[in-house]
Amino acid sequence: MSSVSQEFTRVVSGMRPTGSLHLGHYHGVLKNWIKLQHEYQCFFFVADLHALTTHYEQTDVIEQSVWDVIIDWLSVGINPGACKIFIQSKVPEHCELFTLLSMITPQSWLERVPTYKDQQEKLKDLDLATYGFLGYPLLQSADILAYKAGLVPVGEDQLSHLELTREVARRFNYLYGKDKGFQSKVDEAIEKMGRKNAKAYLKCLKAYQEGGDADALETGHALVSSQANLSLGDRERLYGYLEGSGKIILPEPQALLTPVSKMPGLDSQKMSKSYNNTIALREAPEVITHKIKTMPTDPARVRRQDPGTPEKCPVWEWHKIYSSTSAQEWVQAGCTTAGIGCLECKQVMLDKVLEENKVFRKQAEEYINNPSLVKEIVRDGCEAAQNIARETLQEVKTAMGIKF
Ligand code: TRP
Ligand code: SF4
């Protein structure tokens, strides 16, 4: 229902710096970002403040990881020519908006976000009974709303945070969207549409507000966006009026669900540092070789002459990602007839993993050897981000009556 085309839709997403990234991140989140950077106006940031909510006692991990994560992004193809890369704490507007939004966010909304209790249970050795941790999802809302993002690529575990963000935006617009003289400005704007369109608009409004007709909402929206002679302010007021709130100051973002990564860990569980089954993006080739050579296989293949079933083998999952169709056919035929040995089978996939790793490491090296280039990329990203966030904060503060 956006009134602007895709290339102007802003995409914002963040990642917490709590260690270097692995192949699971690459095949899940990062490949998706690499695609999105060419389709939308993308802002990707390192969420160091979010990392502090859980790792406030291990801040050295965060400090190192911020740069590791950025170099990881750059080496897999997140391209600063196509998107902006920045560090959350370097754009203090995130904190400012977080504080302002906290004034209108009921405490119970935060207490009932499922990740609050879940994470406290899961991360038992950390003391997460802090005000900052309770506020985690609201800080995320500030990250998103500061840029008026249209789309937010996140995993399923983050959907409740997006829902909170939408509720907070709605509440904000409801409380502060009705600027002085809102109704008379709305009336003037409707008049500018001409009699026929004005009538159609009011009909949509009635159908939506009285009957909850979502199609009418969409039609009304389209009608407003097609009016060439309306100012941006008029347009926003008419969208807001249509939806029954005031002017939309903070638009509600949509979640863009990240496709689940098909990349399992070395043991076929989900790849995760806590399971100790990862291969880091810039892992040393010898380590990768060792890890893959000692990877478990189909337990039925005790001896070389025992046939196996690829579907019961973690190595096969990796072949599905890394090997060509013909190599996959060779695995199927060779495994089920005991025609090939497991080491031989692994080697084909290992070669591909090492080939990819070589590219990542080579790219990374360029950035590692040139820290000022990385700093420059981040400085540019922070500046671009701040320019937008600053503007949003001006509007927010004006609406809240604290722009002195
Ligand atoms: N909470 C997110 C995660 O753990 C990271 C994050 C912080 C984020 N701020 C964000 C993601 C804003 C999207 C948008 O994955
Ligand atoms: Fe797994 Fe390959 Fe061995 Fe079959 S031959 S069990 S697919 S490693």
List the helices and strands and how they pair.
Blueprint: E1 10-15, H1 23-36, E2 41-46, H2 48-55, H3 59-76, E3 83-87, H4 93-102, H5 107-111, H6 114-122, H7 131-134, H8 136-145, E4 151-154, H9 159-176, H10 182-192, H11 195-211, H12 214-225, H13 232-243, E5 254-257, H14 285-293, H15 314-322, H16 325-336, H17 342-368, H18 371-400
Parallel strand pairs: 1-2, 2-3, 4-5
The protein binds tryptophan and iron/sulfur cluster (SF4).
Iron/sulfur cluster (SF4) binds next to helix 15, helix 16 and helix 17.
**CA distance, first residue to last residue:** 35 Å
How would you name the CATH homologous superfamily of the largest domain?
HUPs
In total, the number of strands is: 5
The helix-and-strand class reads mainly alpha
The figure for the number of domains is: 3
Tell me the series of helices and strands, N- to C-terminal.
EHEHHEHHHHHEHHHHHEHHHHH
- For the record, the CATH class of the largest domain is Alpha Beta
Question: Could you explain how this protein is built, in words?
Answer:
The protein has 18 helices and five strands. With 404 residues, the protein is mainly alpha-helical. Helix 4 runs parallel beside helix 18 (371-400). The chain is elongated. The mean pLDDT is 94. The site of iron/sulfur cluster has 14 residues, from helix 15, helix 16 and helix 17.
